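Please go through this protein, sequence plus structure tokens, and consider how the sequence yields the tokens. Keep your notes short.
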Amino acid sequence: MRARIKKRQRNRNITLIAVAAVVVVVVIAVGYALYSLNASVSPLIGRPVSPAIYSALSTVAASSAYGPDNPTLVSIRSSSNPSGDVQTVSGQLFVSAGKPIILYVGGEFCPLCAFQRWPLVIALMRFGNITGLSYMQSSSTDSDPNTSTFSFVNMTSSSYTSKYIIFEHFEQEDRSGQQLQTVPTNYTGVFNSYGGGYPFLDFANKYVVEGSFFEPTALANMNWTQIVQQIQNPSSQIYTQVMSSANAITALICSVTAGSPGSVCDNTSITGLSTSLTAYRQNPSASLTGTEPIPTYWGSNLAIFRRTSEGWAAAF
């Protein structure tokens, strides 16, 4: 009887040891998975972007070497071209204080937004000055996790200044997919009519681009400094993708500023993209004092415009 009790006790001990071992393995596996998931989450998330990053991006934006132009990025979507990235809008133009409004809607969690913000920031810098950017990474649980990018959520109305455009920006959801900012009702109509997805760019309600020009795969496992270094390297894939996207966004902006400023819109990398944009008026050889046809953007209610060194001006 005693021998059987001891045997039963020994078997129970073996079972307990086996169960404990399984529990330890599971705990280690879960811990490793969580570690792997968050290993590349940066402590910089939400903090202001450093002056060094601003400086590097400003240098890229200010360089006359704009880099590659890719006409397919500004091809107009139509029945004969259903894969075109750019769609035309018929409706009231988005203008404030005489300036066309560039509208961005995205989400901090969104990996496609993570890519698209890089060329967008570079393009915006060509037309003005931007501050208030925050470090951000896309969601850890989405595709292309933890892609290094920026957030516009902490920018105020004075964070972007430009003589040519106004930049409106809304991060609808945070990195966890929770509600963050609300798109005003005057923009929700066009935003929802084009699917309500991220990222969304509207150029004065003349053109819209839904989605990003490229997947964020090339940015994987890189921090902000490393991405900037790649943007500065003309032989890198990131340079090609980011700069061609920045040039597409620049050309779209030029199409609603009537080609102003000429220092930006007359760049050969931008003029090479203009043929796909019917609203784009670009004629650098025109007399600065003579009159030319009215830029499409301004409409026919203004009788005569003239092209000055600062762009188009009304001649009353």
Observations:
- The first strand starts at residue 86 and ends at 88.
